[in-house]
Amino acid sequence: MYPGATAHEILSAWRGRMADAPEEVFSEAMFWSVPAVPNFPEETHGEQIVTIASDESPDEVIGENEDPELVAAAHLERPFLSHPLSNCHAMGTEEEATAARYFRHAVERHWSPYEIDLSTDQNVLEGIRRRSFTQLRATVAMFGAGEERVTEDLIPLAATVKEPADQRFVASHVYEEAKHAAFFDRYWKEVINPVEAARGLERTDPTADRWFTEPYETVFDRTTDAMDRLRTDDRPETRARAYCHYHLTIEGVFGQTGFYAIEKTFGSNTDGPSLPGLVEGFGAVRQDEGRHVGYGMERLTNLLETGAVEETLVRQTVSDLAAPVDAVVGAMGWKHFPGPDGSDLVSFVTDQRENRLEQLFGDESVSRSGRRSGRVQ
Ligand SMILES: [Fe+2]
Ligand SMILES: [Fe+2]
User: Fold this and answer.
1) According to CATH, what is the number of the domain 94-374?
2) What global pTM score does this model have?
3) CB under 5 Å of ion ligand 2: residues
């Protein structure tokens, strides 16, 4: 919360910060008057304020601004933090509010996998080396199958959530995974198969065994097991393992590395061949994934902060998945195109994994924790 008089500076700084924020960081600005209720210090009643609701701490939101008055104003937020705003608004718990916000975001950012223009990709793929084309087919097949798997794997979670806001969000989550699967399926039928025909290659199916390696199957089989356990053994530890497999690792580490590999190899800003349809589809999928990862990470944070699960359980689960994930990622770099090679991608995936753990256990988690009761949604 900041004094209304500083709104111009606060909103400018906030806007600049959010332009570079990761996909899963969501934020809203709101003008408000402090209500005359006991939850707030009496001297603040009636004060005009601007509020930034964010997954980041106030220091991060405006931290690069050197104006001392503004920095001091940011810390006005602190006295309010011990007063749960949700009591004034009857808006339920923070978890419900996050789920509601993510659901609304999902509705407002709707996109259609059937409206992405794929017409350019076919010509480009007819002109690349056969080996590169095979590698691209394997990548699209792995993403497509992965989306099919995660659609199904979410069902046990959908069956366990009880709050209406959670149910709405998880319903949108399942729908979006199905939509992602539909995009990759369409890409196969409308781009891959015609290119195979043009090149005189046998028509292939995206579910054929040839596209999948043992480490890939290991990652998804373990995730299916972790999610299925929710059906019969819904305890905090089971949920934590489910979030660690599905949201943190598959979506927050593995998937993000795949997006990075595709965009850095086939994006419009690279020196290699551009695949605008594929990259646009990946961009839309990535935006949805930001919400999914954000949801799972918040649930995991909550289980840790409340002491329901131990840090070692999370670290061990993530660590156990590292070897098969890295083995898949290491084979995803393209040898003949500019962009990250296999070792670059292994470095990237390692950094992603460390960043996720840092989100949960680093210094930032302390400030997140300090803000939890005070966030306005
Ligand atoms: Fe997905
Ligand atoms: Fe997802």
Assistant:
1) 1.10.620.20
2) 0.74
3) 251, 289, 292
